[in-house]
Amino acid sequence: MSLPVGRRSSMSVLTDFSQLRSGTKKHLRNVYTSMTLCMLGAFIGSYVHLMTQFRVDFLSVFLSIGLLGWLAATAHVKESQIKRLGILFAFGITSGLGLGPTLDFAIAIDPQIVVTAFVMTTLIFISFSLSALFAQRRSFLYLGGFLGSGLMMLLFVSLVGAYDQSLASFKFYLYVSTALFCAFVLYDTQLIVEKHINGDNDYIWHSVDLFIDFLAIFRRLLIIFGVLKKSEN
Question: The pTM is what?
Fold first, then answer.
């Protein structure tokens, strides 16, 4: 069955990346493939936590940092690609284990929250990624300074919230940090393209940036939807 002309033209627009070089397109495919592998590891880590209630708490943070350091220290050469992908997969698993307590919180309120948050995160990520790819080259790179300042502000708010413990400051942190990481998707996507154009072909490390953005948005949506659902009940 053929699609209507209007729908065909809309689909062609969404899949038209003619403004990107062929090498950059291939690099992005490798980036998103590596990110998918990392997300598979995160799914396995989360599943292990939910099935066994195996808790690592802050240990997962140190393990993740250690794995990222190992990945960064391993040269991006053809001979080490399998090893580096294995490290990336392990990083996904530890990230999934670290996500476990947030999943417990959401499931205890309503298991549907997990599905809703994941679908919303996926839609947000795809939308902002496409916006970055279709936008004029380097048009979102100016966000770097603002995003860095935003992270420092959020760190200050979280430290204040540790003493204040008010619902208002907590919600402010949630909503602003969610918006901040959505902007990071724009920034990181264009930065990856620009890095590749300038000779940086480390698609495995580039996938880490996007995975962290995705996981950060997903984690915050889990909490936001959980808080909203809990307030309704």
Answer: 0.87
Q: Backbone dihedral region of 96: left (phi > 0), alpha (psi from -120 to 50 degrees) or beta?
A: alpha
Distance between CA atoms of residues 62 and 43, nearest Å = 19
Residue pair 94/210 in contact (Cβ under 8 Å)? The answer is no
pLDDT of residue 7 exceeding 60, the answer is no
**The two three-digit tokens of residue 217, written as one number:** 């948005």
Three-class SS state of 31? helix
Q: What is the distance between the alpha carbons of residues 86 and 141, in angstroms, rounded to a whole number? A: 31
| Closest C-alpha to 129, from 207, 223, 225, 199 | 207
Q: What percent of the chain has pLDDT over 70?
A: 89
Q: Record the tokens describing residue 215, joined without a space.
A: 């996981």
- Maximal CA-CA distance, the chain: 62
Structure confidence at residue 188 (pLDDT): 94
Alpha carbon distance 203, 208 (integer Å): 9
CA end-to-end span of the chain, whole Å? 47
Q: Which residue has the higher pLDDT, 173 or 80?
A: 80
Q: Helix, strand, or coil here: 118?
A: helix
